[in-house]
Specification:
binds (3R)-3-hydroxy-3-methyl-5-(phosphonooxy)pentanoic acid, Alpha-Beta Plaits, 10 strands, Ribosomal Protein S5, domain 2, 41% helix, 23% strand, 273 residues, 4-stranded antiparallel beta sheet, 6-stranded antiparallel beta sheet, alpha+beta
């Protein structure tokens, strides 16, 4: 294995297309690396474009970068495992999807079978993906750890109903997989809408964010939170899609929404010169 002689690495942010929260309970998720990156040097000065606490993997990007120096060789498996331990210290019971997508990049099908056995595979997307946009619904007051505990409480109190939501989320996640593999029976807008409705049923989307998403739907688009979400105030970054791309700038203007394009399927951990 090549020794990590370089002193600088960069790691991407991520978005979860489908499967957040359900993935903590062994259901699959699809995540993708995006074109916002964190750069870290061994000496410890860190720069990052990834917004903190917005569901875009800022902590995983940091954990993977630090782990790359710690492991000291370009062994993605070791680096990913080390980053998972750091994520556990921070988040308590993470699924590991964040650190894994940040390490490997691209599009990833991910499933945590048990604590020590996680399966994942790169999805070689055959589909020409439509453009997605990001809208910041505001920093959540709750941490990822708190949101994961919130769902754990729900699961404890209403196991059957929560399992049913997870099963339906799994159905949507499989729809995303088929779409990425170029099955035109699946429509991105519908998948995003269905995913959002299920996350709302889990209770991880705030009223403010639901309002924003309703407006986008009224204008013919679709939107979903991505990541842990938030209840009291903002719910982090929202993924927005509209069939008619010209409508995006009209919506942004009409409602004063900051909507920025995002590139998907980007590179994971990278050694920088
Ligand atoms: O920290 P976030 O907002 O990227 O959320 C992580 C995704 C969850 O499914 C909510 C938690 C996990 O560990 O998978």
């Amino acid at each position: 294995m090549r020794k990590l002689i370089v002193n600088k690495v960069s790691t991407p942010g991520k978005i979860i297309l489908s499967g957040e929260h359900a993935v903590v309970y062994g259901y699959p998720a699809i995540a993708t690396a995006i074109n916002l990156r964190l750069t870290a040097t061994r000496a410890g000065k860190i720069e990052s474009d990834i917004p903190i606490g917005a569901g875009m993997g800022s902590s995983a990007a940091f954990a993977v970068a630090i782990s790359a120096f710690k492991v000291g060789e370009l062994n993605f498996e070791k680096i990913n495992n080390h980053a998972y331990k750091l994520e556990k210290d921070l988040h308590g019971n993470p699924s590991g999807v964040d650190n894994t997508i940040v390490t490997y990049g691209g599009f990833l099908w991910y499933r945590k079978e048990t604590e020590d056995f996680k399966t994942f595979k790169q999805i070689e997307s055959k589909a020409k993906l439509p453009k997605l946009f990001l809208l910041n619904s505001g920093k959540p007051q709750e941490s990822t750890k708190e949101m994961v505990s919130f769902v754990a409480g729900l699961y404890k109190r209403k196991k059957k109903a929560t399992e049913e939501i997870f099963r339906q989320i799994e159905g949507v996640t499989k729809g995303f997989l088929r779409l990425l593999l170029d099955d035109d029976n699946f429509e991105l807008g519908e998948l995003i809408k269905n995913n959002e409705k299920l996350l709302e049923r889990l209770g991880v989307v705030s009223d403010n964010t639901k309002q924003i998403i309703k407006i986008i739907e009224k204008e013919g688009g679709s939107a979903k939170i991505s990541g842990a979400g938030g209840i009291k105030d903002g719910s982090g970054m929202v993924i927005v899609y509209h069939k008619d791309i010209k409508k995006i700038s009209l919506i942004a203007k009409k409602y004063n929404f900051g909507l920025s394009p995002v590139k998907l399927g980007e590179e994971g951990l990278r050694i920088e010169k």
